[in-house]
């Protein structure tokens, strides 16, 4: 662990000045803060280290962490915070942000605290994921996106274009013995979005207006159908568990997946990472995966919002980011982290950093939740061959429009 | 002795209780309505102020975007000076977090200045109003409040109204104003009257009614009491509504007067500060919280009677409904006591107190933890609550039976397209059909297999039964999340073992999740596998209640195995088996996990059951009210089933 | 003599039926075991030649780990405070069982032996309480337990909810069983001057052991496997129950199925142990003599 001593000193000075305002009131008693997260394993260990170092430096503040299983996380926030319970700070991806803001009394706007310096410390598009209707509600902590993960033994040089991808994959596919050149959860809208966005497709037209039936979305589906049908380079019914199994046994040479996948790879597999290929059929545009960005939010029911913001700010600092990246194997949103050698020379971290250049943030509208189910149904219908893309997508579009209209009712 | 008999006359006691409850509740409703009318008048007054002042500020800011601050400060203090009821007046430009002017002594000058850290709420309010205005504009509906109204305490209101420059909301004006506290009209006299009326009725009841009593005419007394109660409540309502009407008239006149003075000041201030304002033709300041004009007061300050009638009419209708409901409840209470039900209830409670004491703890626990959420769900089902409006009171979102009609009244199960008839899988009746099929299949498998295994395991002298028993309950013991996903994997088209076995015997692999029927089978297989151990254990328990000598006697008489099963085993099993069957029908009907994890409702949502559908509506579509109605429909279906099943089994209970 | 051979023949048949169902019951679980003991996070897909023969297919459907490793178990138990979570679960499920069975026994006894107005309604109410779908109950339950009763982060809060959830089945099951116990036994006890409490605890309960065993197992399972309420009510990691801890391994994008499988097996062991203990009350002919009186 190498740290720039000057930066640390400077950072702590800023923190001290910021803290000054409330330290005067908090000398007598310590301010107890609670922060919720959904990490485990190495991510959790690194996160707890960061919190420990914050506790050491911030006098009069005692932060306790609570890990909550992902499956219960959103429900726990939704049940607790609007009723004045729950944490002071919590961490979650931006896809729930819009819903919490529309529901109200959950996420505290932090626009007011945000200074220029903090605004500028993030990688591009990170802060936009934390912004809802022109107001910033959180500080971006980490990001995740899919990229190309390949078995080095089978694929010496990763493909740069979709043409190369299909060519390499075809050579490695033998469906009869269950071997495939490429495997990814293509029937999952999240994974498919990379292909859709390459064509300039989208889930929403600017603003929360659904655009599932866009012409570009149909074109992306047609390419997927070609990969499945004519090229036959992908397995049927690709559940994530199956993809892991196939990759671990060398039965899938290439996979589109994210950092979470790396923990599931068997130790004997030598894998490499590369940027997702460009799509010849989309005029050479790169595949653009959706990025999910974990934000640090101040709870609307917190009794110590300023201290909570100070903690949030520390979590997204360069110092904390370095720990999260090196020890937690996460991808911090603070751009200064990537200037450090131990990050820039790390093949995994730098590969995901490169992928970010073509990635776009997943929409944070509340309406996004409405879209998942119809989109998944459409995807499955298309993949099954039960309906052509334009028909299935049109149907999904109408269903989403109806559901959104039911939400946006005038008084 | 005679006095006591009079005083405990059921009709008289009932009349006293009902009249007390009815009169007090009516009085409360009327007082609430009066307070609401006053509060609304006050809010409108301050909102008009805010709107007018915001217009002046906007005009100034538009004219001089940068150097206008000093003039805004001057305007602010001048405006505040003109209206003595204004406590503080603030102008905040939230676009760049600036406090442009304030008459609050606690706000440190000089102005303009950046908002201080502790003034964050002001900035957030500005951002919220801006976002609300933009949202309403973008979506073309009014769902977000554009004016913020807060009642600080009984005598203070705070209103914030946004102002825009060049079509963008850049800030807001905030007025804190003193208002009159609601005056309880002649509190002591009214209270005395409220108590006196029921008492008078009571005395009348106790002395007058019994004297004419003869055994055959309790209904006459009851009728008289009902009539007296009705007349009292009606009279009270008439007086109260009349009073309310008078107040409304007065308030409307005050409001019009207030508008005129605001208009005057507006024009004075505009000319004094050299502000170019649009001429006032229509009243654009008397608006609701969504900034839609209410048109009660015309531009020249006179009252529009038609709008007035409409506004007050709606309120009176609501109040009248509440009073009718109250009268009905009072009548019910009267009937309950007068016709002797209360007495009977009391006697029953005393007579069976030990039985009730045994049952009470379990019942109370249930009432607290089950029936409150249930009542909440039912209330929700009559509203159109969604994620976007869940902060509004349920009363404002009331839609009556609309959700139920939407669910039950949609018979579009089949749709004709060019390709022929297609099933609409989202339709309630299709989902109901799948749910019933799902439940029947699962419970049949569970009970059938469970019974078979329990009977086998209950064979006397059979060896290794303890090993079988432990192995057979494993599907129940292991968390079903992992086993459900294992089953899902087993149904995979290429790698799943089930297709491997089919191919082993020369069959063709099946795409299990691509077809409505095969996908249905995957769920049945998984859930059947999960549910038979429970049934087996229940039946094993039930089998222990069968006296062995019954079988011996049967054997002596030469009964066959089947006859023994039919005439001894089944009747003895019934008391334990039937509740288990009823409950497992209920549980299977609402079995969420397996559908969700195994088939996911594929293909195209055709294998959803009602509960997964309700879940999707609530947590993926955020339509809480509609989902609640769905849940209530599920509940009603199960309730009908339960009552029916209970009827059938009631006969069996008599046997044992 | 003749009787014995016919019994034996029948036993062979019964063994055949039982063995086939047992195989069916444990087959998916063998896959879970295979995954848990593989030491990895993914199931092994068997290599099949292009034209697989019958034996190749057989090999592919037999759950058998290529390597056996305890790594998943060790990681689950060491990396996470899993022991602590199991302990919490044991307390919560145990208390749920005691409270649930006790409340259910008293209520069921009254329903079975007393005739009082509201009896049918009461029974029906227990049934009805199971009918309202739980999906919308989460927030109201949070309000009751955490906001009103201040039982957030306590065992008691969970125990109350679980006990009330399990009571309806227990009441119906026990009531049904009590009904089969002849009333004459009690009548003779009353003649002998026994108090109601004595009759209930000394006579009725021992006779109803099989039903009590079933309801106890059911109550235990209710408290043992519940996930969502436990994760919502608890506010410290050391207060979580085992199902909550288990869910850390899946959810979101990542899913460590190897850990999850190992954890699931650990979680199911106490249930199996409890059942092993309780099954002696489910053995043919144990209580039948008692009923005869």
Structural features, described:
In chain A, a hairpin with a 2-residue loop joins strand 4 and strand 5. Chain A is globular. Chain A contains 17 helices and 16 strands. In chain A, the strands form 5 sheets. In chain A, strands 1, 2, 3, 6, 15 and 16 form a 6-stranded mixed sheet that branches. Chain A has a 4-stranded mixed sheet with strand order 8-11-7-12. In chain A, strands 4-5 form a two-stranded antiparallel ribbon. With 411 residues, chain A is α/β, with parallel strands linked by helices. Helices cover 45% and strands 17% of the residues of chain A. Chain B has 656 residues and is an alpha+beta fold. In chain B, the strands form 2 sheets. Chain B has a 6-stranded antiparallel sheet with strand order 3-2-1-6-5-4. Chain B starts with a helix and ends with a helix. With 293 residues, chain C is an all-alpha fold. Chain C is built from 14 helices and no strands. Chain C has helices at 2-38, 54-61, 71-79, 82-113, 119-129, 138-148, 155-180, 183-191, 196-207, 209-225, 228-233, 242-246, 257-278, 288-292. The longest helix of chain C has 37 residues, at 2-38. The radius of gyration of chain C is 24 Å and the shape is globular. The interface between B and C is large, with 112 and 107 residues.
Shape assignment of chain C: globular
User: What share of the residues of chain C does DSSP label as strand, in percent?
Assistant: under 5%
Runs of chain A in which pLDDT lies below 50 for 5 or more consecutive residues are 16-27
Instruction: Provide the gyration radius of chain C in Å.
Output: 24 Å
Uncertain parts of chain C: 287-293
């Amino acid at each position: 662990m190498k740290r720039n001593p000057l930066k640390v000193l400077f950072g702590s000075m800023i923190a001290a000045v910021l803290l000054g305002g409330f330290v005067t009131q908090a000398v007598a008693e310590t301010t107890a803060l609670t922060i919720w997260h959904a990490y485990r394993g190495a991510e959790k260990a690194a996160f707890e280290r960061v919190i420990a170092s914050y506790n050491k430096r911030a006098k009069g503040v005692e932060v306790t962490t609570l890990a909550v299983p992902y499956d219960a996380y959103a429900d726990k926030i939704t049940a607790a915070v609007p009723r004045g319970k729950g944490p002071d700070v919590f961490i979650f991806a931006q896809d729930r942000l819009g819903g919490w803001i529309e529901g109200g009394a959950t996420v505290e706007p932090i626009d007011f605290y945000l200074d220029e310096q903090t605004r500028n410390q993030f990688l591009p598009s990170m802060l936009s994921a934390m912004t809802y209707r022109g107001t910033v509600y959180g500080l971006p902590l980490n990001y995740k996106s899919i990229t190309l993960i390949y078995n080095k033994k089978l694929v010496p040089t990763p493909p740069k274009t979709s043409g190369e991808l299909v060519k390499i994959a075809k050579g490695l596919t033998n469906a009869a013995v269950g071997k495939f050149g490429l495997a990814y959860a293509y029937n999952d809208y999240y994974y498919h979005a990379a292909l859709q966005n390459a064509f300039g497709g989208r889930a929403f037209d600017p603003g929360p207006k659904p655009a599932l039936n866009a012409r570009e979305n149909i074109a992306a589906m047609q390419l997927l159908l070609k990969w499945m049908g004519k090229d036959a380079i992908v397995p049927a019914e690709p559940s994530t568990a199956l993809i892991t199994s196939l990759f671990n046994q060398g039965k899938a040479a290439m996979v589109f997946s994210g950092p979470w996948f790396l923990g599931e790879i068997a130790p004997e597999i030598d894998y490499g990472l590369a940027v997702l290929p460009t799509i010849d059929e989309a005029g050479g545009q790169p595949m653009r995966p959706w990025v999910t960005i974990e934000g640090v939010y101040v709870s609307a029911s917190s009794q110590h919002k300023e201290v909570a913001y100070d903690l949030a700010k520390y979590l997204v600092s360069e110092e904390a980011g370095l720990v999260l990246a090196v020890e937690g194997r996460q991808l911090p949103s603070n751009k200064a982290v990537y200037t450090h050698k131990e990050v820039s020379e790390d093949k995994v971290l730098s590969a995901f950093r490169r992928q970010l250049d073509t990635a776009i943030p997943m929409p944070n509208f509340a309406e996004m939740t409405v879209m998942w189910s119809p989109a998944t149904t459409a995807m499955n219908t298309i993949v099954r061959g039960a309906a052509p893309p334009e028909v299935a997508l049109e149907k999904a579009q109408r269903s989403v429009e109806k559901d959104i209209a039911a939400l946006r009712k005038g008084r | 002795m005679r006095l006591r008999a009079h005083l405990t006359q059921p009709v008289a006691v009932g009349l006293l209780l009902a009249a007390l409850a009815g009169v007090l509740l009516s009085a409360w409703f009327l007082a609430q309505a009066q307070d609401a009318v006053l509060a609304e008048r006050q809010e409108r007054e301050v909102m008009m102020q805010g709107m007018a002042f915001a217009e002046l500020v906007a005009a100034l800011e538009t004219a001089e975007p940068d150097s206008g601050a000093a003039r805004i400060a001057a305007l602010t203090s001048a405006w505040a000076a003109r209206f003595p009821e204004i406590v503080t007046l603030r102008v905040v430009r939230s676009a760049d977090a600036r406090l442009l002017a304030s008459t609050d002594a606690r706000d440190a000058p000089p102005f303009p200045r950046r908002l201080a850290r502790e003034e964050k709420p002001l900035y957030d309010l500005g951002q919220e109003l801006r976002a609300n205005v933009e949202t309403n504009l973008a979506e073309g509906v009014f769902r977000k409040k554009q004016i913020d109204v807060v009642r600080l305490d009984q005598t203070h209101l705070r209103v914030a109204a946004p102002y825009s420059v060049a079509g963008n909301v850049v800030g807001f004006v905030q007025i804190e104003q003193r208002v009159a506290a609601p005056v309880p009209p002649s509190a002591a006299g009214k209270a005395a009257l409220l108590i006196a009326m029921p008492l008078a009725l009571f005395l009348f009841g106790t002395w007058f009614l019994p004297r004419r009593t003869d055994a055959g005419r309790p209904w006459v007394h009851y009728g008289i009491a009902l009539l007296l109660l009705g007349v009292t409540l009606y009279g009270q309502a008439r007086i109260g509504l009349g009073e309310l009407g008078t107040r409304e008239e007065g308030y409307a006149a005050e409001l019009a007067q207030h508008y005129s003075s605001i208009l005057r000041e507006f024009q004075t201030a505009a000319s004094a500060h050299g502000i170019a304002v649009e001429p006032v033709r229509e009243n654009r300041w008397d608006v609701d919280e969504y900034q839609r004009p209410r048109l009660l007061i015309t531009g020249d300050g006179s009252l529009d009677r038609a709008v007035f009638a409409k506004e007050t009419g709606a309120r009176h209708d609501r109040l009248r409904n509440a009073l009718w409901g109250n009268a009905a409840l009072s009548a019910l209470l009267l009937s309950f006591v007068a016709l002797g039900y209360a007495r009977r209830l009391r006697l029953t409670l005393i007579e069976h107190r030990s039985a009730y004491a045994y049952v009470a703890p379990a019942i109370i626990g249930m009432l607290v933890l089950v029936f409150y959420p249930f009542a909440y769900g039912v209330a929700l089902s009559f509203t159109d609550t969604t994620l976007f409006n869940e902060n509004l009171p349920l009363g404002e979102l009331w839609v009556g039976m609309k959700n139920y009609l939407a669910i039950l009244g949609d018979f579009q199960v089949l749709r004709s397209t060019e390709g022929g008839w297609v099933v609409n899988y989202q339709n309630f009746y299709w989902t109901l059909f799948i749910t019933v099929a799902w439940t029947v299949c699962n419970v049949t498998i569970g009970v059938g297999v469970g019974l078979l295994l329990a009977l086998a395991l209950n064979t006397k002298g059979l060896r290794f039964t303890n090993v079988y028993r432990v192995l057979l309950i494993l599907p129940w013991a292991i968390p079903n999340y992992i086993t459900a996903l294992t089953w899902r994997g087993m149904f995979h088209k290429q790698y799943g073992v089930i297709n491997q076995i089919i191919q082993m015997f020369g069959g063709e692999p099946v795409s299990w999740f691509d077809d409505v029927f095969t996908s249905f089978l995957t769920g049945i297989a998984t859930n059947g596998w999960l549910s038979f151990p429970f049934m087996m254990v229940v039946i094993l328990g039930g089998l222990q209640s069968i006296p062995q000598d019954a079988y011996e006697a049967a054997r002596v008489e030469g009964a066959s195995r089947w006859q023994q099963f039919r005439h001894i085993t089944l009747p003895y099993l019934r008391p334990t088996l039937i509740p288990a069957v009823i409950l497992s029908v209920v549980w299977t009907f609402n079995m969420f996990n397996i559908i969700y994890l195994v088939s996911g409702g594929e293909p195209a949502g055709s294998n959803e059951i009602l509960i997964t559908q309700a879940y999707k509506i609530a947590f993926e579509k955020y339509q809480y009210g509609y989902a609640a109605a769905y849940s209530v429909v599920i509940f009603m279906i199960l309730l009908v089933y339960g009552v029916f099943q209970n009827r059938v089994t009631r006969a069996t209970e008599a046997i044992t | 003599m003749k009787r014995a051979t016919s019994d034996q023949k029948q036993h062979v048949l019964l063994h055949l039926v039982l063995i086939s169902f047992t195989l069916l019951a444990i087959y998916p679980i063998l896959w879970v075991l295979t995954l848990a003991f593989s030491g990895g996070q993914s199931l092994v897909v068997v290599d099949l030649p292009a034209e697989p023969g019958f034996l190749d297919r057989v090999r592919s459907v037999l759950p058998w780990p290529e390597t056996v490793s305890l790594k998943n178990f060790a990681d689950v138990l060491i990396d996470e405070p899993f022991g602590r979570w199991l302990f919490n679960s044991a307390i919560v499920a145990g208390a749920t069982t005691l409270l649930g069975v006790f409340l259910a026994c008293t209520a069921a006894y009254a329903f079975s032996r007393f005739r009082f107005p509201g009896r049918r309604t009461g029974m029906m109410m227990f049934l009805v309480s199971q009918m309202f779908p739980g999906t919308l109950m989460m927030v109201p339950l949070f309000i009751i337990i955490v906001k009103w009763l201040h039982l957030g982060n306590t065992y008691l809060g969970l125990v109350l909810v679980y006990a009330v959830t399990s009571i309806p089945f227990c009441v119906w099951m026990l009531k049904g069983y009590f009904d089969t116990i002849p009333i004459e036994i009690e009548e003779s006890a009353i003649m002998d001057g026994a108090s109601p409490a004595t009759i209930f605890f000394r006579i009725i309960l021992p006779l109803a052991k099989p039903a009590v065993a079933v309801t106890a197992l059911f109550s235990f399972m209710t408290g043992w496997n519940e996930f969502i309420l436990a994760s919502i009510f608890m506010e410290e990691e050391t207060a979580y129950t085992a199902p909550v801890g288990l869910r850390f391994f899946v959810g979101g994008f990542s899913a460590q199925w190897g850990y999850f499988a190992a954890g699931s097996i650990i979680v199911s062991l106490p249930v199996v142990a409890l059942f092993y203990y309780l099954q002696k009350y489910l053995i043919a002919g144990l209580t039948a003599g008692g009923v005869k009186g």
